[in-house]
Write a structure and sequence with these properties.
The chain is an alpha/beta fold. The protein is built from 17 helices and 19 strands. Among the domains are: 240 residues, Adenosylhomocysteinase-like (Rossmann fold, 3-Layer(aba) Sandwich), CATH 3.40.50; 152 residues, 3-Layer(aba) Sandwich (Rossmann fold). The strands form four sheets. The chain has an eight-stranded mixed beta sheet with strand order 13-12-11-14-15-18-17-16, covered by helices on one side. It has a seven-stranded parallel beta sheet with strand order 7-6-5-8-9-10-19, with helices on both faces. Strands 1-2 form a two-stranded antiparallel sheet. It starts with a strand and ends in a 15-residue tail after the last helix. Its EC number is 3.13.2.1.
């Protein structure tokens, strides 16, 4: 970044501006997730540089008609004014100048594909967690300028296979390094891979999966392969895929169909490519959100004749399974991983406690101290979010429908309110209920200027984003996954990830916690696949308590932790087996 150096000549006490003869090279943004554009005002008499953040909010009342949807990925041509370039170069100005950065309208190749109305209505009938994209989102891990849709590319891996569709297969080496780093923080999966690799408990299993495609998920997929399974995979969220990781999986022979920034049509196309393939039929399903299960039910119901079971991770997907079971339409056994202890108490709580701050910091650069935040829902996700924000000095309010969770919030020191009571004063609104229309257009209209709105639940139905697609409101993309929605009076609302899952769309999540969830998923698949006929009926089941305890025990050596063992006398007194399970199924941890 070029700088100006003020040197003082002591002989005649003259102050002169001196430019460096050879300005240093501009800082590369390829290794940085997002670098906000900066406007710089330079005074001819002052050597100081005064940065004015491009994301600073205008005063309420600014004319909204001048605002246009912008694309932060475009850069000025060489020789042009770079005072506000995304690369952060600083140029000299004769006086204090404030310029509005102008970009061309967003034009993404995948948005050029016409959306099929039939599929749009289909997506709204299920979780909506990965559809209805209003704007594009470039992967911050992908510095490629190639805007060609992966569906239009002809790619092959080093083995000559083309049974995949990713952004760029050439990124495989970089993705492999990310997977190797993740393996170091996933001890249980690696231990499971080592212990069961010889037995191959998943030999003959053909698993079709629809989850977030990250380095952590890649470790799970490759572990399933090491245990004997054949896998085909798609993403459950259009924004959470790491392109380089998807490329690494494809290079390793996994049939993966996913890239960051898919359109709605792309999303369902990828799922269909995983399921509808000649000479290959799945016998196990691993789902996150219910989209894959829904697609097979609608398009290929005969496949369930050979499917042994479904493993579902999210609260949204589990809700759909219980609905199918109640209606008598669930034709295979299903394992509810979301409500297992190792998922609820670790992934939902500890993961969200750390990743909520990461997601908000990366997208808004805000300071949390003194900010007023309302968290909608005080389940495990809500508990994690509240604890993190409280520790950072935020003033946290909670909304809740369940009196038990509400009492927990009160005992933890949070004020229980209705959203209408605080919507005008809060700085941040976070939803984590798994419900729909928690934040309505009426709430959005009443928010103060600059309020940040985001979602930590799996489904994007919690915030009524659809109500904001109206002519009187202007959308301005200020950086990847950050939109300013501008009202006619100039008020701005900051919407993150278009109401989708914040942490996996805008940041990362702790690998160690995901190791717990991924190990639980792997054991659930092994249990359903190897269970003798008749053990599981056409219903929804929880993971056996013994397996929950086994997953936890695999992670204890990381902390050099040593469990106390019961004596025979103690075990007899408690009526327990010395090796567990140590708690009944109804026990609340």
């Amino acid at each position: 970044m070029s700088v100006q150096i003020a040197s003082v000549k002591m002989a005649d006490m003259e102050l002169r501006d001196v430019k460096s003869e050879k300005p240093p090279e501009s800082l590369s943004v390829a290794a940085v997730p997002e670098v906000p554009a900066v406007l710089v005002a330079v005074s001819p008499t002052e050597p100081e540089i005064s940065p004015i953040p491009a994301l600073s909010l205008p005063m309420k009342g600014a004319p909204a008609s001048a605002m246009k949807r912008t694309d932060p990925t475009l850069r000025p041509k060489d020789g042009g004014d770079e005072a506000g370039s995304p690369e952060g170069a600083v140029s000299e100005a004769p006086r204090t100048v404030k310029k509005q950065i102008q970009f061309a309208d967003q034009k993404r190749e995948f948005n050029k594909r016409p959306t099929k109305i039939g599929r749009r209505s289909l997506s709204r009938s299920i979780s909506q967690s990965s559809t209805d994209s209003y704007s594009s989102a470039a992967s911050y891990t992908d510095s490629s300028d190639d805007e060609t849709s992966p569906r239009d590319k002809q790619q092959k891996n080093s083995k000559g296979s083309s049974d995949f569709c990713v952004k760029n297969i050439k990124q495989a080496e970089f993705g492999r390094r990310e997977i190797e780093i993740a393996e170091q923080e996933m001890p249980a999966l690696m231990a499971l891979r080592k212990r069961a690799q010889g037995e191959k408990p998943l030999a003959g299993a053909k698993i079709v999966g629809c989850t977030h495609i990250t380095a952590q998920t890649a470790v799970l997929i490759e572990t399933l392969g090491a245990l004997g399974a054949q896998c085909r995979w798609a993403a459950c969220n259009i924004y959470s895929t790491l392109n380089e990781v998807a490329a690494a999986l494809a290079e390793n022979g996994v049939a993966v169909f996913s890239w960051k920034g898919e359109s709605e049509d792309d999303f369902w196309w990828c799922i269909d490519r995983c399921v509808n393939v000649e000479g290959w039929q799945p016998n196990m399903i691993l789902d996150d959100g219910g989209d894959l299960t829904h697609w097979i039910y609608k398009k290929y119901p005969n496949m369930f004749k050979k499917i042994k079971g479904i493993v579902e991770e999210s609260v949204t997907g589990v809700h759909r399974l219980y609905q199918l079971s109640k209606a008598g339409k669930l034709c295979v056994p299903a394992m509810n991983v979301n409500d297992s202890v190792t998922k609820q108490k670790f992934d939902n709580l500890y993961c969200c406690r750390e990743s909520i701050l990461d997601g908000l910091k990366r997208t808004t650069d805000m300071m949390f101290g003194g900010k007023q935040v309302v968290v909608c829902g005080y389940g495990e996700v809500g508990k994690g979010c509240c604890a993190a924000l409280k520790a950072m000095g935020s003033i946290v309010y909670v909304t809740e429908i369940d009196p038990i969770c509400a009492l927990q919030a009160c005992m933890d020191g949070f004020r229980l309110v209705k959203l209408n009571e605080v919507i005008r004063q809060v700085d941040i609104v976070i939803t984590c209920t798994g419900n729909k229309n928690v934040v309505t257009r009426e709430h959005l209209d009443r928010m103060k200027n600059g309020c940040i709105v985001c979602n930590m639940g799996h489904s994007n139905t919690e915030i009524d984003v659809a109500s904001l697609r109206t002519p009187e409101l202007t959308w301005e993309r200020v950086r990847s996954q950050v939109d300013h929605v501008i009202w006619p009076d100039g008020k701005r609302m900051v919407l993150l990830a278009e109401g989708r899952l914040l942490n996996l769309s805008c940041s990362t999540v702790p690998t160690f916690v995901l190791s717990i969830t991924a190990t639980t998923q792997a054991l659930a698949l092994i249990e359903l696949y190897n269970a003798p006929e008749g053990r599981y009926k056409q219903d929804v089941y929880l993971l056996p308590k013994k397996m929950d305890e086994y997953v936890a025990s695999l992670h204890l050596p990381t902390f050099d932790a040593h469990l106390t063992e019961l004596s025979d006398e103690q075990a007899k007194y408690l009526g327990l087996n010395k090796n567990g399970p140590f708690k009944p199924n109804y026990y609340r941890y």
